[in-house]
Write a structure and sequence with these properties.
By secondary structure, the chain is of the alpha+beta class. The protein is built from 2 helices and 3 strands; from the N terminus they run E-H-E-E-H. Strands 1-3-2 form a 3-stranded antiparallel sheet. Strand 2 (31-34) and strand 3 form a beta hairpin.
Length: 70
């Protein structure tokens, strides 16, 4: 199994779910984990899918309030 790598940081569970939905639609597995340094949630994907996941997030329509921190 491939190592999981952080590709985004969601401010809350709702934002994490939105990001995961984008990744699922693109066929990319993901996990959510708490960020030890803040109240945010880390979005993790397999190392082999990092570039594809970043592309999905960057190309997704988003406004400034909901855009995930990469």
């Amino acid at each position: 199994m491939s190592e999981m790598v952080q590709i985004a940081l969601a401010e809350d569970a709702s934002e994490a779910e939105q990001i995961q939905a984008l990744l699922v639609d693109a066929g990319i597995d993901s996990e959510v984990a708490p960020d030890d340094d803040s109240d945010s949630l880390k979005i993790l994907v397999p190392e082999a899918a990092v570039e594809a996941a970043q592309d999905v997030i960057e190309l997704a329509p988003a406004d400034e309030e909901t855009a995930p921190e990469l």
